[in-house]
Specification:
The protein is built from 7 helices and 8 strands; from the N terminus they run αβαββββααβαβαβα. The protein is of the alpha/beta class and about 210 residues long. The chain has 2 domains: about 150 residues, Rossmann fold (3-Layer(aba) Sandwich), CATH 3.40.50; about 50 residues, Ybab, Chain: A (2-Layer Sandwich), CATH 3.30.1310. The strands form 2 sheets. Strands 2-1-6-7-8 form a 5-stranded parallel β-sheet, with helices on both faces. The protein has a 3-stranded antiparallel β-sheet with strand order 3-4-5. A hairpin with a 2-residue loop joins β3 and β4. The protein is globular, with a radius of gyration of 16 Å.
Length: about 210
């Protein structure tokens, strides 16, 4: 399975999530790449769309490798195996979290001054453009739960084999459209996986809100 781009992935993910239409649901996109995927899902489900600020904490000498993640509301997850293998200290994790805190605030600013969408008693669909290590997804699901979500659905277009079982610790349901047996990176299943810009995030949010309000 190959997706043309994030919008195409979102439309196809929306088809899978169609049974949620008409239920009390909120869609949360993870900035930045998850928002263009989440927007078509929210429109199809006729559900409120919001961002859920979350940041990966990269290993100092290998930033692409996650040693954990932080999310809005003071949520933090730590990849114990990565930390132990790298001999990483609590101080190193704290320092990484401190470095990422301003970026977390910048992601919250995508709301444009609007309050966060209330999650109490709702089914919350957490959407990203794919899942690799899962650190940010776990932090996002925990953040949604901390804000009162009654049920958390983690939905992504692509994920590695055996991805779901650890995620069931934080999500009630885990959905991936494609789970390649030889997973290398999320972008391998996209024709266009160019970095998402701030302008594209804001445009996706604005367009989805306009459609939902029309």
């Amino acid at each position: 399975m190959t997706f043309a781009n994030r919008t195409d992935a979102g439309r196809r993910l929306a088809e899978r999530l169609a049974p949620l239409h008409g239920t009390p649901v909120v869609v949360l996109g993870l900035p930045r790449g998850g928002v263009p995927v989440a927007a078509p899902v929210a429109v199809a489900l006729e559900a409120p769309l919001d961002v859920l600020p979350v940041r990966k904490l990269g290993v100092p000498w290998q930033p692409e490798l996650a040693m954990g993640a932080i999310a809005e509301g003071g949520v933090r997850v730590v990849e114990a195996e990565v930390v132990a293998r790298g001999g990483l200290t609590d101080a190193a994790i704290d320092a990484a979290a401190e470095r990422e805190a301003p970026a977390l605030a910048r992601e919250a600013a995508y709301r444009g001054g609007r309050p966060a969408v209330p999650l109490e008693g709702k089914t919350v669909v957490v959407v990203d453009d794919g899942l690799a290590t899962g650190s940010t997804a776990r932090a996002a699901c925990l953040a949604a739960r901390a804000r009162g979500a009654e049920r958390v659905v983690l939905a992504v277009p692509v994920a590695p084999p055996h991805w779901a079982w650890p995620m069931h610790e934080v999500a009630d349901e885990c959905i991936a459209l494609h789970v390649p047996s030889h997973f290398r990176a999320v972008g391998q299943d996209y024709d266009d996986f160019s970095p998402t810009t701030d302008a594209e995030v804001l445009a996706a949010l604005d367009e989805a809100r306009a459609e939902l309000e029309s």
